[in-house]
Amino acid sequence: MDRYRTLSRIIGALLGFLAILEIIGAFVGPFAFVKTPSLVVAPIYAPNYDAGEIEAVRIRLEQELASLGTHALYPKSLIENFYLERDNATDVFDGSYRSKEEAFELGESLGIDQIAVVSALGYSLRVNLYLTIYDIATEQVVSHTSVTAPDLESLLEWKDLDDEPIRLGEALELEERGLSIGGRLFVGWITALILVSGAILIGWKVPRIILEILLGAGLLLALFSWIYALNGDMDYVQRFVATNGILSIGETKEERTATAVRYLIPLLLLAVLWVSDAWQRFFGIPQRQRGKGLIEVFDVFGPILAMFSAILFALSLPNFLVLEGIPMLAWAAVTPLYLALRRVRFGRGVFLVFLFTGLQSLLINWWQGTFSYVSLPFTVALTLVQYAPFTVLLCFTVRRFRRYGLLAAPFLWVVFDWVRSLGFLGYPWGILGVSQYANPAMIQSAAIGGVWMVSFLPHLSGSVLAIALERFLMEKDIDLRRTWFPPFAVLTGILAVALAGFLTITARSADENGRIVRILALQQNTDPRKHDYQLSFDELSRLTEEAISTDSGRIPDLVAWPESGFVPDVRYWLDDRRSRLRRGKLVRSFLDWQKMMGIPLVTGTQDHFYEPPSPGEAAAFVEDEKDVPHEVKRIRNSAMYLPPNRMSDSDRTYYYKMRLVPFTENFPYREQFPWVAELLHNFSTTQWTPGTEHTVFQAPAFRFSTPICFEDVFPNHVREYVRSGAEVLVNMSNDYWANTPLEGFQHAAHAVFRTVENRRPLVRSTCSGWTISVDTEGRIDSGWPPFYTPGWIIAEHSIPEVSETTLYTQWGDWFPVLCILIWAGLLSTDFMKTRKRVKPPSTIDTIHTTV
User: Fold this and answer.
1) Cα 505 off chain centre by
2) CA quadruple 441, 466, 450, 357: dihedral sign
3) Burial, 453: exposed, middle or buried (Cβ in 10 Å; 0-12, 13-18, 19+)?
4) By mean pLDDT, which of 157-171, 242-256, 384-398, 826-840 is the weakest?
5) Per-residue pLDDT tens digits for 651-684
6) Using omega within 30 degrees of 0 as the cis cutoff, is the peptide bond preceding 770 cis?
7) Neighbouring residues of 339: CB distance < 8 A, sequence distance ≥ 6
């Protein structure tokens, strides 16, 4: 005991000393945190240049500013939307003069910290570029410099009069030490370590749960920081601007080293403290008091078991190590977690489930770390909040009910997965059953009970395996039949489900009679909202013509472009006041090209409408001393269908995305929580207006619907398209920003289940992958284009004359509701049997015992 206390104090002293050094290093030295205020480059004043030249100057300047890493640049699209929302008919980037006051209004509207006002003046022997950065709040100059080049070509190559590289960073001197969001989280964690080390030094016994919480939080923060460091500590917009859309940022050794210096040694010292505590707990138990075998390990090393479960869970799905996933791991993924929960106290069990949740959410959503430093921590935090009620119920179920608790847990898990698909915060990503997406025989039950029924089996397998292992490790006289019969029975059931699925696929394949439809799905490998709109249109139109030419000139029954395949608002730019401008001319070219090709085309785009301002918006206008407008403009994420042989430009149909991504695409409680709305505004989120109708488009050969982006992961939502009459599902997505195939692979894996649930084929057109075709049995066709490569796929599907209606299409999410009843029934049965077993003695028995 004395040696343990001495060791703890030594480690505590080292931990405290190191933590103090880390605090100092966060503000000074080579690894100090740097503030990155948000910045937008206002439209450039350049009276001597045309729009194309101005665009080239803006791109080069933003590229240099982003490469400095001193600011968080806002994309050009937000500037354009600022003017579009005000119905400004001026071509924003044509070089016409705009006042400094308008630049500040732009900055205040976007909620940014600083704005760059730029002038490019061309003379006979030189080009002068004047750059002034203002602070929006104080309206003071933060930095100012000028750049001189012999001509425009040299300026675009970033060469000065002496043909030397222009050093913008040295001229501006913009780097400012300070804490970012990641820095604040790190300093908070280090401060907690200092408090713990102080408690150890004065002789207090630090509860192991505190050590485990600090270890878990530190591990998650280190992983967040490491993922971001792999991207050069730059979010997606900065990388896009700095690399001109290539996204490859090269060596990130400096950023990774900073993460290692901040987290590695503190985590190791914490781990030593925890291991020494665990060692004392395990070997401090007298031999005669120990249970059989390794049963004490489940209590002492509970966090390791929880993390092991999280890793198995994440790796069973498509993951960053094995893109296709390792589906076999799903069948035992939750077993280690259950074994730990059976042996720990309730409070510690809640912590273990939170640890499991945080780690598996981080590993599954790894790709969000490529978008921004905030997105991945926010997703994990939101997942922890969603899991909170489930965590309490799961611990209560598994620990309190010793007979049927483990058997009831799979039903509870299915219910929770279903609940987290509902409402504004719905995000049914990473469901365990999705791991079986590549095994069509195992997922045919989705036609009966949806993905929920498929997901139930691996959860049941994991819980039954935990029951068998618990009996094997705890019982003195092992009854092999009683111990291993449940796993054998579940295995038999799984094989029976697989056999039934195989027979179903065989029978359906032999009975495919109907009209054949051909759908061309494109993948252009650009981000339509970041790359120039003309570039995306040119690439998509080229690929379309090439695909049709390769297919002997046959016109497909539908051509599908991805989400935001053609971004400009067609309705807006067709107006006579705007049609002469650059965007108006692009819209005209797009419509004329489609009509010339004579193809039925559906593409992602945006549309708008007008409505009276809400009370909160009206109050904001009054507060800013502005007139309250009669109408305000709303913008929608849309799909637009253009039929072949159109008679006019108005011959088009729209679908408006209904399930918008929480917070980043829509926050419906802006008036109730204005501080959240302001925070989201500062992170350059887009606030779309959701649609209200499950639109079904009528192509010449079939009816189809277009769930946009992650709408295809919501089973009940997609079911409504089918109930409205859709014969084919055409998903359009933009996953280019993820900068990794993982997000696109996971996205498509979830979407596969919609085909089996409703017996409708699915075609996905994406910007960068996974562009695939899936038949009604959930089989993915070959021949899809590789990720982040331009290409296409021509899907052929048989459409029956009479559409099939599955049990899931008809009844919806009936299986999770049944699971609620079964879960409650099992717990009630367990309670009644336990109560009967501990029934208090009668009065006669008491008297007899006394006598």
Assistant:
1) 33
2) negative
3) buried
4) 242-256
5) 999 999 999 988 888 888 777 777 777 666 666 5
6) yes
7) 298, 305, 466, 469, 470
